[in-house]
Amino acid sequence: MSFPLASIAVYSSVVFGVFSNTQRLIGQHRYGDSNHAPALSDLAVASMVAGIVSVGIGGPVDLVKIRLQMQTQPFIEGRNQSFVPHIAYRGPVHCVSTILRQEGLAGVYRGAGAIILRDVPGYCLYFIPYTFLCGWITPEGCLSPSPYSVWMAGGIAGAISWGTATPMDVVKSRLQADGVYLNKYKGIVDCIAQSYQSEGFKVFFRGITVNVVRGFPMSAAMFLGYELSLKAIRGNQAETNP
Fold first, then answer.
1. How confident is the model over 179-232, as pLDDT tens digits?
2. Higher pLDDT, 18 or 141
3. Cα–Cα distances in angstroms (integers) from residue 17 to residues 23, 31, 110, 113, 211, in the given order
4. For the chain, how big is the Rg over CA atoms in Å?
5. To the nearest 5 percent, what fractions of the chain are helix, strand and coil?
6. Positive or negative CA dihedral for 215, 221, 226, 228?
7. What pTM was computed for the model?
8. Is the distance from CB of 144 to CB of 37 less than 8 angstroms?
9. Rounded average pLDDT over 133-145
10. Phi/psi class of residue 38: alpha, beta or left (left: φ > 0; alpha: ψ in -120 to 50)?
11. What proportion of the chain, given as a percentage, has pLDDT over 70?
12. What is the 3-state secondary structure (H, E, C) of 170-197?
């Protein structure tokens, strides 16, 4: 978990920064005011851009995390032989260097197509519900949402986003885990087909409860930290440049 923990701050900063700046650019271009209240289409475009950009950082981070976790799991070879294979990676740096050496740059972005299919709609169902819920919870007359409004709206948005992203997250994880010792899947469609044939439709919703329960507090804290940090920075800038 050292690699994702070390990179989560950068990843979140990029995602939130791309979303907010894209939203401002759209507002400036369409309405002549970067702070104009965004329409639904504006939020959708900004969310999709954030989802696409997130793959650049999130893909390698997820890949390393899953590879390091999966190398300790037993797998079945043949019909009745199950065993724990040898350790392939000594740590995150060794994992990245090994993947680059054996699979090239494309190996670092294994499962990138599935991540795009997960994150583009996933971030639409992340930022759009947050924006509308935050406005709905905030009392009329308030210039900015309260910490409670941000926390609640962020939590609900996170639960919605992670719940709906679970099917493609399952596919993404299987594609990224594939290749540690065996190469089972040829691509996204093949992974979906094999998973459905062997385990049924329910496999795509495996872990959905955990994702939803985890998504609420994680996203609530993320949005609250973002909004409070932004407010503090703007406050300091106002004091410096009255």
1. 666 778 889 999 999 999 999 999 999 999 999 999 999 999 999 999 999 888
2. 18
3. 10, 21, 25, 23, 24
4. 21
5. 75, 0, 20
6. positive
7. 0.85
8. no
9. 84
10. beta
11. 87
12. HHHHHHHHCCCCCCCCCCHHHHHHHHHH
Distances (CA, A) of 207 to 26, 74, 120, 203, 217: 36, 20, 20, 9, 17
Give dist(CA 151, CA 27) in Å, integer.
25
φ, ψ (nearest 5 deg) of residue 186: -90, -15
Q: Which two tokens stand for residue 91?
A: 């740590």
Residue 41 CB burial class (10 angstroms; 0-12, 13-18, ≥19): exposed
**Which tens digit of pLDDT belongs to each residue from 2-20?**
666 778 888 999 999 999 9
Angle at 63 (CA atoms; ends 44, 173), nearest 5 degrees: 70
Q: Which token pair is 171? A: 């596919």
Residue 239 to residue 66: CA distance in whole angstroms: 46
Q: What is the DSSP string of 193-209?
A: HHHHHHH-GGGGGTTHH
Count of all residues that appear for the chain in the document = 242
Residue located via tokens 């407010």: 231
Given the structure tokens 């993404």, which residue do they identify? 172
